[in-house]
Amino acid sequence: MAIGREAFGRGAQMLWAQRRAGRLRRLQHSRLAALVAHARDCSPLYRDLYAGLPWSPDLAALPAVDKRVLNGDFDAWVCDARLTRSGVEEFLADPGRFGQPYLDEYFVCTSSGTTGRPGLFVHDRHACAVYLGMFGRLDATWLSWRDFARMELRGDRVAAVVGTGGHFAGASWVQFMRTVNPRWRRSWKLVSAQWPTDRIVAELNAHDPAIVLIYPSSLLQLLVPRERGELTISPLFIEVGGEAMSRGARQRAEAAFGCPVRTVYGASELDPIAFSCDADWLHYSSDWAILEPVQADFTPTPPGQASDTVLLTNLANRVAPIIRYDLGDSVTMRPDPCPCGSALPALRVAGRSDESLTFIDAQGGPVVVAPLAIAAAADRVRGTELVQLVQVGASELQVRLRVSPDYDDRSVWLALQRELRGFLADQGLSNVSVARSDQPAQVSQVSGKFRRVLRGDDGGDQRAAASPPARQ
Ligand SMILES: [Zn+2]
After folding, report:
1. How far is the CA of 340 from the centre of ligand 1 (A)?
2. b (16+ CB within 10 A) / e for 222-253
3. Ligand 1 center–CA 279 separation, angstroms
4. Range with the lowest mean pLDDT among 79-93, 275-289, 405-419, 430-444?
5. Which residue segments constitute the domains of the chain, with CATH numbers given?
6. Do β-strands 261-267 and 433-436 pair in parallel, antiparallel, or remain unpaired?
7. What would the mean pLDDT of 300-309 be, rounded to a whole number?
8. How far, in Å, from the CA of 223 to the mean position of ligand 1?
9. Which pLDDT score is estimated for 395?
10. How far from 324 is each of 36, 73, 294, 313, CA to CA, in Å?
């Protein structure tokens, strides 16, 4: 499965298309009409959902969907009769096939389960070529010709510090790219965000990447070894995603690494959705996606106001159509043109609400734990339906757990406890206790949203949380 040539063509087309807002709108309009017609033709789930609607309806007339709707009837959603939920799950359960194309043509990833079973997402090869073209678009925005030449000189080496151990979008995509492209097999390096800081530092130093992709919390974890002179890499830029990063934290990281820290907003349903510009806004590829900021009742949120959620339409992927899909993020669209000059629509995304945890190790030093990394460790355990990790003290983690009905409650809990203890021990936190809470998982009182990792009201040593993320 080779997608390099098609991706190059898609990228070139996108650079041409992005110069004018009118051109982007025309492309969006024709691709949407084609996608809706295709979904009605080939996906029994969408055929039922759209029954009774005019043949060419307005986007706003189409019902919104979410992970529960699409994954609830996976076999009726997808547009290839060879794809079944059980078949894809069997493929994902085999660690030896991590990052390989499924049926030799599909990229498959899971989103971590906040409710019910994890979401399964399948992307076809044309969509993958478009996603690569989108990465080309952001490279072209972020890098000068001189930077491209420097990238080339450094062997195009990229390191991705992401959650591993499952088929999560980030790690799977990197491995998928390494599998389908022999050149990237050498130049792309996957580094587990769950590894101890010392090991991450050693791996990064050995690979000497020109670009680093990383969670903000993992980047903050690397500031102390950087400032001590132990982490010697010199990236052209650092790309963060998956969590919110404050402006202050970003400036500190930029000063420490001597390069810009850029942001990508992505999801298992489409990655990248949007990327940051010099004016500190995110721009989304409106020729290949539609973002509709909406209120809780799905009525439109005017530009300039924060929405309750946002509906995503992925115009590139035909095999498992994503049309008016509720992503759950609050976004604010910029009402006027962005000063950076881009014709792509500009937005800001409210921070995803998982929080960094700061524990105290046996020597009394603070250790920061990235929420996505510890959540990824929990996601490795099969049979969990809902997991919420709550720090309730300087060295105590409580787990609110609901086990799937077809699994044994006690064995799932013991496996989860073992996995979390192992993860914490790798971070130098063997002293942290992992106990099961008798409370059910709870949604936030403030946002009404479910957060998988949080600090409890009575815990999370605030003094320690304010200290630098050092391992003493
Ligand atoms: Zn901009």
Report:
1. 4
2. bbbbbeeeebebebbbbbbbbbbbeeebbebb
3. 5
4. 430-444
5. 1-351 (3.40.50.12780), 357-466 (3.30.300.30)
6. unpaired
7. 93
8. 28
9. 92
10. 11, 17, 11, 5
Q: What's the CA-to-centroid distance between 141 and ligand 1, angstroms?
A: 10
Interstrand relation of 346-349 and 384-393 (parallel, antiparallel or unpaired): unpaired
DSSP string, 63-79: PPB-HHHHHHTHHHH-S
Beta-carbon contacts of residue 55 (< 8 Å; ≥ 6 apart): 37
Pick the residue with more confidence: 175 or 356?
175
Distance, CA 252 to ligand 1 centroid (Å)? 22
Q: Two tokens at 422?
A: 């192992």
Residues with Cβ within 8 Å of 299's Cβ and at least 6 positions away in sequence, in order, are: none
Are 79 and 322 spatial neighbours (Cβ–Cβ below 8 Å)?
A: no
Rounded to 5 degrees, what are φ and ψ at 55?
-60, -35
Whether cis (ω within 30° of 0) applies to the bond prior to 272 is: yes
Ligand 1 centre to CA of 164 (Å) is 32
Q: What is the pLDDT of residue 357?
A: 85
Which range among 260-274, 354-368, 457-471 shows the weakest confidence by mean pLDDT? 457-471
